[in-house]
Amino acid sequence: MSIVHSGPLRVGIVGCGNIAVNFHVPACLALPEAVEIVGLADPTPERLEAGRVAAGLSRERVHADAAALIAREDVDVVDVCTPQHLHRDIAIAAAGAGKHVLCEKPIAAAPADAAAMVAAADEAGTVLAVVHNYLFFPYVAALRELIAAGELGEVRTVRVDMLGVVDSPGAAGYRPQWRKDPTASGGGVLMDMLHAVYLAEHLLGLPAGRVSGFVDGAAGDAVESLALARLEADGRAASVNVAWGMGEGGITVSGTKGRAVVRYRGDGTPPWAPFEQLTVTTAAGTRTVALPAGAELGPLIADALRDTVADVAAAIRANRPPAATGAQALHTLEATIATYASAALGRTVAVPFDPGSPLHRRGVVGLDELDVPLDSPVRRRGLFGLS
Ligand SMILES: NC(=O)c1ccc[n+]([C@@H]2O[C@H](COP(=O)([O-])OP(=O)(O)OC[C@H]3O[C@@H](n4cnc5c(N)ncnc54)[C@H](O)[C@@H]3O)[C@@H](O)[C@H]2O)c1
Is residue 122 located within the same domain as residue 207? Predict the structure, then answer.
């Protein structure tokens, strides 16, 4: 579908929680030539009001029901900012109404939902873009440039450590603990920080084909608070280590000719700890890549969200793919769920999943249809609804 009018793309935001009000609304307001917020929807009255005030809209332009927003003729793009188990119906309705979609990550909680979203956009001829905003961090762009320039040779291994993730609740007026409910979130800290998974795949230069994992959770929690994943891709491998806690953060890319190492303040985890240094070591020695000082969390995410929205608007106008397509996001989702499945089943798990697999149909909660051993640590912990 092409946009016929020449002004900014008219955006309707669905879900006025933390990410929408703190980052999507300011991102759109920072790009007046590219986009204009024309409406919002949220069934939680205090969140709808918070969004309305932040976006500076009159009461008649905001809705309790997303369907009313999606039906409006003056909306070109629907920006989906609800928790992930609710993305599918909104994105499919939007595509059915001929709207382009920008969807928060993870694209969905279950791969089949994500696949249905991709199919709906394909059928409608609309764009389905997903917010993989860490791709826009300046040091990530610099890393990808130096890999593409060949300075590291052929990439062999990637390590992405985010072991000091802050466990942030959702907006108070809705369900602050939805991230701890696997039927809503689709998983714990790794699902929330699947940023680490797509970063690893982008730095490897290939999507993962086989995944193995270890996960553990705090007593009484139904989702993991610690996840270690190994992603294999055609002779290359990444390890992705993520936890709610106080562990180390950092990225290392090793190739046949050199290595690149990213460090954050106090060896902390991004985006809470600002970027500190990117070094490249080859046979010629070690150099520090010249980059601007690392921003604190607020401005870092604000800039990355602004760049994400700008990219999607440009992609729609130019009829080119956005930085993260629905199909790419579906793959990242499956690699994340494969980590859980591997940890539960005690073996390496291949991605993409068979479409008939319960993991594809239902995501991590589909583990209850598989032969998870009685002594599986995931079952013993009572994670993901297993008992
Ligand atoms: N890209 C990032 O860096 C980033 C950061 C945080 C959150 N997120 C993602 O953004 C999404 C939302 O996260 P959050 O932290 O803002 O959650 P939140 O709990 O703060 O907000 C969720 C909002 O969705 C609203 N909602 C619920 N059902 C709805 C419906 N049917 N229609 C419209 N609105 C509805 C709730 O009322 C609430 O206002 C999640 O998918 C999350 O993973 C991404």
Answer: no
Q: Residue 183 Cα, ligand 1 centroid: separation in angstroms?
A: 15
Is residue 290 domain-shared with residue 309, that is, in the same domain? no
Domain region containing 13: 9-133+302-324
Report which ligand 1 atom has the smallest distance to the Cα of 16.
Answer: 39
How many separate domains does the chain show? 2
Q: How confident is the model at residue 4 (pLDDT cuts 50, 70, 90)?
A: low
Contact 185, 193 (CB under 8 A): no
Distance CA 203, CA 51 (A): 36
Q: Is residue 353 part of a domain?
A: no
CB of 43 closer than 6 angstroms to any ligand 1 atom: yes
Q: What is the CATH number of the domain that holds 261?
A: 3.30.360.10
Residue 344 neighbours by CB under 8 Å, 6+ apart? 367, 370, 372, 376, 378, 379, 383, 384, 386
**CB of 84 closer than 6 A to ligand 1?**
yes
Instruction: Evaluate: CB of 241 within 6 angstroms of ligand 1.
Output: no
Q: Which atom of ligand 1 is nearest to the CA of 44?
A: 37
Q: How confident is the model at residue 6 (pLDDT cuts 50, 70, 90)?
A: confident
Please indicate, yes or no, whether residues 162 and 246 belong to a single structural domain of this protein: yes
* pTM for this predicted structure: 0.98
For residues 197 and 231, what is the distance between their CA atoms, to the nearest angstrom? 9
